[in-house]
Specification:
The structure holds 2 protein chains of 2 kinds. Chain A is α+β, with helices and mostly antiparallel strands. Chain A is built from 16 helices and 16 strands. Chain A is elongated and about 95 Å long. The mean pLDDT of chain A is 91. Chain B is α/β, with parallel strands linked by helices. The chains are: A alpha+beta, B alpha/beta. Chains A and B meet through loops of A and α9 of B.
């Protein structure tokens, strides 16, 4: 039997607010010593009360609008009750039946076709503390609690089960992260845990509306991990079904180094969270005028920017899509154009999608990291030196690599390493004379009518000058010399 | 005996330098030493702190910086967080818990220059009506040492009634200020929900809890309200309504005032001496010029108790989840595992009544029961509120007994929780409605105090203070002192 894969993703994104969700502690804890960003409120001391971070509400509403959600007029917080040592109050302040936004969508690209993926809801809650597990040989294990993360605003985005493959899931995540970054509401960093993803995956016989058992997959800490875990899981479920065995509704964890998912908890042990309205916080009635104001201040989103790039800079559809897939790349592109009018959009996009992309892919960094070493003005300068013939295309690539490594300017590197292109006829003619003398057979071939020998001879000159000779000049002078006899 | 002074009397003497705060404080500490072995009203006596604060207050007064509470000794219910001073909630769970912060009301009293004498005994986590549910010891009624002082703010009421302190603060979730005030013949006010900040009040039932004063007369009650009322940006449920000078409304003329007597509050099982004292007191109010309607009906009143015992335990079940032995307070150390440690901490750290209410609340919020219990109770709450709204469209205030009985014997009701719960039948509808109410001494039955409850519209504290003041000035009850045998 043929099966179809059904995937829905739940994403948690930490919001880029200055202070925590319900107290004034700083959210900037990544390099802080444990338990240094805490107060009675986020420690869950007896007697404390939460107060709502307005910026977090605004970020959540911005996201919900960007995801085409209906924004609730009336919304409220609820208590989600469960005991665990990372949960300071024994309950998490979250949202149950009145999220900020619901029933939205985003568009992903599947084999060149646009596909709409439903967004069930966007809601706001607080992050929990971090547990650090320690083992002492011979004495057993224990855990430490770092409360710095407790109370950091966390936005949950629940997607509809509209995804049909691990690749679609990856596309969805990339697109969602791109939108959050465009909005400036989250760093979207999965490795650091500020952007987390749980997946629900099941299979169903083709053309059947009923899925077999739904499996929740957790513990995926990178985009690659999500893709691998879902690929593994759809395969596993198909094998179980093909063997005529039963699939169980359960939670499974992705084990990165083994490349497998393992069962963590079956449905019988599911929590009853006993949600009820948070009595310490009055319900929020969102003012329509305020929501409209938030909407009017939304920054340009990926699709709009792509359309603008196509129209304004006359770049190809695919090029515009690539340039706008991340806000940082699109910003870099536009900043380059602002830096100089002498370089065409096409030239800049060639650089960005060519050599720059190659460098960042190879180094495993993003454009933001690249930008710290090579500012748009620097790249534009290099492009100009190349187009003016001061430096050859081959050398320019090598110069860019060094600019990224050393953070030096193109001019400095070219000067220090003598990479400037040789266009001086005198110097080139000297080399040509030497090559003609050393390669008598090739010269004879040329004179006998084998015109392609010219290419070989030009190549010898280029080799001797380590690529620095201007190829057009070499070509012209070599031909002249051979014709002259 | 200077400890018998009211706030306004002591203030007059402090201002005219006929008395120092040090003298007054030492007199109170001496009185505590004398009667405390028989009364057991206090969990902690903060003598050293009190003397330091008295010294500071005298310096302030010498510099001409005096307000009505400067230098006045106060007793705080042990549910209010005091920085550096043990705050136990009369529970084993918090027996050695020292808060790192002050409750907002404590901060306000400290800013006024009040002197903290100690922390008052209470029913554990404010759950009870007799102070017998303290994990440490029961408190005795100064009018009859074999009887209960009421609860849960029993220690606070006794401290005032026995002149251990000049005034006290309590908290009231279903009658916990008013019922002990009635049982001990002092004035006790539960303000409108949101009138006084709850920040630093260890939560029992967040949507019902309010802090309020217990004082020797109505003028003192108004003076304490002036100090503690007002919006607090740390409590989202506190209301940004302007705070009046509560002493301005005190007058003896009740002409034109419309009072209602809801018949449902004269319940079956009410003691005849309570009923006759009530009828006499209400007749007195008529004599002072008030127009009394003896036939008001609030038909949903009989459902208030049931609704209360769903809502309060539900909220409590979440509020008390933080006590797991991980962060502070009692921690069971000889456990097999993390879960075992958390379970045993709660098993041995909480008393029976607390555990009973946690279980009630957990059950009421469980999947499948939520609609039948919690949601239904919230609907009853809406009805009760509406009935009060309708009554206050016609009447300026409502008059009822504070409790259907005089103080009962220690041990009389501990075996029957429902009988104990019925002790609050006249007070808890007021918390459910969120309106203000106070209890004022209104006579004695067989030498045991009887309280009259005056209920006001939301933020109508001034009206009930006015009625109480007129009644007080026309009677001698508030001048009677218990002879502690």
């Amino acid at each position: 039997m043929e099966y179809e894969t059904v995937i829905g993703l739940e994403v948690h994104a930490q919001l880029l607010t200055k202070s925590k969700m319900f107290c004034r502690c700083s959210t900037d804890y990544t390099s802080a010593p444990p338990n240094s960003h805490v107060c009675p409120v986020c420690l869950g001391m007896p007697g404390v009360l939460p107060t709502i971070n307005q910026q977090a509400v605004e970020f959540t509403v911005m996201t919900a609008i960007a995801l085409h959600c209906t924004i609730s007029d009336y919304t409220k917080f609820d208590r989600k009750n469960y005991p665990y040592p990372d949960l300071m109050k024994g309950y998490q302040i979250s949202q149950y039946d009145a999220p900020f936004g619901h029933d939205g969508w985003l568009v992903i690209d599947v084999d060149g076709q646009e596909k709409k993926v439903g967004i069930t809801r966007v809601h706001l809650e607080e992050d929990v503390a971090k547990l650090l597990h320690r083992t002492i040989a011979g004495e057993g294990s224990y855990s430490l609690v770092d409360v710095n993360r407790s109370g950091v605003p966390l936005m949950e985005i629940v997607g509809e089960p509209d995804l049909r493959s691990p690749e679609e899931a990856r596309q969805y995540l990339m697109k969602l992260r791109s939108i959050l970054r465009y909005l400036g509401v989250s760093t979207g960093n999965m490795e650091e845990g500020s952007f987390r993803c749980d997946a629900n995956i099941s299979i169903r016989p083709e053309n059947s509306p009923d899925t077999l058992a739904k499996v929740e997959v957790k513990n995926m800490n990178s985009f690659k991990a999500v893709y691998r875990a879902l690929s593994y899981e759809e395969e596993r479920q198909r094998k179980v079904a093909a063997a005529g065995k039963r699939l169980f509704q359960e939670t499974r964890g992705w084990v990165e180094d083994r490349g497998v998912t393992v069962s963590q908890r079956s449905k019988e042990y599911a929590h009853d969270y006993r949600y009820f309205p948070e009595p310490d916080l009055a319900p929020l009635v969102l003012d329509r005028a305020w929501v409209e104001e938030v909407e009017s201040k939304l920054p340009e989103l990926p699709e709009a920017r792509r359309n603008r790039f196509e129209a304004k800079f006359s770049v190809a559809v695919g090029t515009a899509a690539s340039l706008t897939s991340s806000k940082e790349m699109a910003d870099y592109f536009e900043d380059c154009l602002k830096a100089s009018r002498e370089i065409s959009p096409k030239e800049i996009s060639n650089w960005l999608l060519g050599e720059v992309s190659r460098i960042i892919n190879e180094s495993g960094v993003d454009i933001a990291e690249f930008r710290k070493m090579v500012a748009p003005e620097g790249l534009v300068r290099l492009a100009k030196l190349n187009s003016e013939g001061v430096v050859s295309a081959a050398s320019a690539k090598s110069v860019l690599g060094q600019m990224y490594q050393k953070g030096e300017s193109a001019d400095d590197i070219i000067k220090a390493q003598g990479l400037g292109q040789i266009s001086d006829a005198g110097a080139i003619e000297e080399e040509i004379a030497r090559v003609i003398k050393d390669n008598a057979p090739a010269v004879a071939d040329y004179k006998a009518g084998k015109k392609q020998s010219l290419k070989f001879l030009v190549g010898q000159v280029m080799r001797a000058t380590r690529g620095r000779a201007n190829p057009a000049v070499v070509n012209r002078l070599m031909e002249k010399r051979l014709e002259e006899g | 005996m200077i400890t018998q002074l009211t706030i306004h009397e002591a203030h007059g003497l402090l201002k005219s330098k006929k008395l120092s705060s040090m003298e007054l404080t030492k007199a109170c500490l001496k009185r505590i030493k004398e009667v405390e072995p028989r009364l057991k009203a206090l969990v902690s006596v903060t003598g050293e702190l009190a003397l330091k604060q008295a010294e500071k207050a005298d310096q302030r007064i010498a510099a001409g910086d005096i307000n009505p509470l400067t230098g006045i000794p106060v007793v705080l219910k042990d549910v209010l967080c005091t920085k550096g001073v043990r705050t136990t909630c009369s529970s084993r769970m918090l027996e050695n818990f020292v808060p790192p912060y002050d409750a907002t009301v404590v901060e306000k009293l400290n800013n006024c220059g009040a002197v903290t004498l100690g922390k008052a005994n209470m029913d554990e986590f404010a759950m009870g009506s007799s102070t017998e549910h303290s994990a440490f010891f029961p408190t005795h009624n100064p009018w009859d040492l074999d009887r209960v002082p009421g609860g849960s703010s029993g220690g606070s009421a006794v401290a005032v009634a026995s002149d251990e302190g000049i005034f006290a603060l309590g908290s009231d979730t279903g009658g916990s200020i008013r019922q002990p005030a009635g049982f001990c013949s002092v004035v006790g006010l539960k303000p409108t929900y949101g009138r006084v900040s709850r920040y630093g009040l260890v939560a029992f039932a967040s949507s019902l809890d309010q802090i309020g004063p217990l004082t020797k007369d109505v003028t003192d009650c108004a003076l304490v309200m002036n100090a503690i009322a007002g919006f607090d940006d740390r409590d989202s449920t506190s209301v940004p309504e302007p705070t009046p000078d509560y002493t301005k409304c005190l007058s003896t003329d009740l002409k034109g005032l419309k009072l209602g007597v809801p018949k449902e509050y004269f319940v079956k099982g009410m003691q005849p001496e309570v009923e006759s004292a009530m009828r006499a007191a209400i007749a007195k109010l008529e004599g002072l010029g008030a127009k009394v309607d003896w036939n008001v009906s609030l038909p949903s009143t009989p459902y208030a108790l049931a609704a209360y015992y769903i809502i309060a335990p539900s909220e409590a079940s979440a509020n008390l989840a933080r006590y797991d032995g991980v962060k502070y307070g009692f921690s069971y150390s000889d456990a097999d595992s993390m879960w075992d440690a958390m379970e045993k901490t709660r098993q041995f750290g909480f008393g029976d009544e607390v555990k009973r209410r946690i279980m009630l609340g957990t059950y009421a919020l469980s999947a499948g029961y939520y609609d039948a219990y919690y949601l239904k109770a919230q609907k009853v709450r809406t009805l009760i509120r509406r009935e009060f709204d309708q009554a206050f469209a016609k009447y300026d205030a409502l008059v009822t007994p504070t409790s259907p009985t005089v103080p009962f014997k220690i041990g009389e009701k501990t075996e029957d929780p429902v009988q104990m719960y019925l002790s609050d039948v006249c007070t808890l509808p007021i918390n459910i409605a969120g309106v203000p109410a106070l209890s004022i001494p209104a006579g004695f039955g067989d030498g045991l105090p009887i309280g009259m409850q005056l209920i006001g519209k939301p933020f109508g504290e001034e009206t009930i203070l006015k009625v109480a003041y007129a009644y007080e000035q026309a009677t001698e009850w508030h001048k009677m002192r218990a002879e502690i045998k």
